[in-house]
Amino acid sequence: MLSIAIFCNHVLCKSNNGSDIHTFSWRDFNQKAVDTSRRFSMLCGIARVVCSITFITDVLPTNYIYREMISDAQWITAQLAVYTYLAGVFRTLPRMAFFQPSENNTSICVPTMSLIKSLFWTMSLTLIIVAHGSSILSGYFRMKENKFLLDVFTTTRLVTYGISCILLVIGYGIYGRLLIDLTIQSFDLVQGQGGIAEACQETHITDVFRNEDGMEGRNIHRIYILSQEGEKGEVETRNDRFKYHIRKMKIFNYSAIMTFVFWSLTSFVLAFWHDTIWSTIVLSKIQAFLANINTNLIFLVVLIGILQSELIHHKCQNSLDVTKAVVSSESSAFDYSETIP
Predict the structure, then answer these.
(1) How far is CA 206 from each of CA 82, 203, 333, 341, rounded to the nearest angstrom?
(2) Per UniProt, which keywords does this protein have (predicted)?
(3) Which of 284, 275, 279, 253 is closest to 175 using CA atoms?
(4) pLDDT at 75
């Protein structure tokens, strides 16, 4: 069910790629990073389905290499998804107009583009090579019944995941929240200037004359102002749409922080006490419940929030299309004149 929900969300979000659904920071957000993150999320759901079917139906019960690899695929694709999204956050922040040091914080540090690429590829390749390689080797030594090396590579894999989760918690806790705060600031500023409305432009011909070449010309006076009133329905619709996008950002960011805090603690505990936990029925059931049910519930909350925001976007977009067909004037915040021959 979780993978079906992920697939539906992927299709619905993909259908929105051509529309103007991004306001303020979302216009600057790296769409390629969002698309790639969504694809990794879908792969994570597929890997989870395959893993569940494998263990429920007891497919290849003695092939521990396959079992470890398919189980590990869920971790890798999930973490690559959030790596990609976080890289998009880093690429977005410097391009925002509100990215300025405040009185309380004058040392906002955002990595450069080259450093972002280096960190992304370093962390991704390290995760794939170390974690996935350790899972293959742990499966191999489980088949060979070499308990010492099995414990070594199991611990290596889990410690790698724990460190990765801690880095993600730091990234989302600092920069994910910063992106949300800057986006809300942009919303508050525009609200203070009369709300989010379509730009309207008034054009008047103020003079008709002939130049020295005998050609007739016109002075056209264009007035650009920020609409203070506008269509009430349009303003409210745009504000509601923006609020749903903010809520979607918050849901994703906070759920990512909670999820990776949980998995960082779980990974380190399992890394050093996995024998005790997995050999005790009560402890193993508690760990399985927390690892599967708890995480799936968080994912479902995220998906419901995203799906609701996307559905609201479709509704708001249709309303805006009707409003734009009625409004004939435009407005902006500038006033200038030009001569057209």
Answers:
(1) 57, 9, 20, 14
(2) Membrane, Transmembrane, Transmembrane helix
(3) 253
(4) 83
The answer to whether 172 touches 256, Cβ cutoff 8 Å, is yes
The upper half-sphere exposure of residue 199, i.e. CA atoms within 13 Å in the direction of its Cβ, equals: 7
Report how many helices (DSSP H) and strands (DSSP E) the chain contains, helices first. Answer: 11, 3
Beta strands in 101-215 (DSSP E): 200-210
Other Cβ atoms closer than 10 A to 78: 22
- Round to whole Å and give the CA distance between 46 and 76: 13
How confident is the model at residue 49, as a pLDDT?
84
Q: What are the percentages of helix, strand and coil residues in the chain, rounded to 5?
A: 70, 10, 20
Q: Which of 77, 94, 102 lies closest to 29, judged by CA?
A: 94
CA dist 135 and 137 (Å) reads: 5
Measured between alpha carbons, how far is 202 from 334 in angstroms, rounded to an integer? 11
Q: Convert the pLDDT of each residue in 197-248 to its tens digit.
A: 444 444 555 555 556 666 655 555 554 444 444 444 556 666 777 777 777 7
> 86 with 175: CB under 8 angstroms?
yes
Instruction: Tell me if 159 sits within 8 A of 69, measured CB to CB.
Output: no
Residue written as tokens 């995760």? 127
Q: Are 231 and 323 in contact (CB under 8 A)?
A: yes
Q: Residue written as tokens 């990776």?
A: 260
The reported pLDDT for the residue numbered 248 is: 76
In the chain the beta strands, taken as DSSP E runs, fall at 200-210, 216-225, 335-340
Low-confidence ranges of the chain (pLDDT < 70): 1-31, 93-110, 186-238, 309-310, 312-341
Q: Which residues pair with 205 in a beta bridge?
A: 220
Closest by CA position to 92, among listed 24, 19, 185: 24
Angle of CA points 129, 83, 14, to nearest 5°: 120
d(CA 43, CA 3): 9
Rounded Cα gap, residues 214 and 210, in angstroms: 6
Look at residues 222, 212, 219, 207 and name the one whose alpha carbon lies nearest to residue 340.
219
Contact 254, 305 (CB under 8 A): no
Sign of CA dihedral 190, 194, 196, 197: negative
Q: What pLDDT, in 10s, does the model give residues 205-214? A: 555 555 666 6
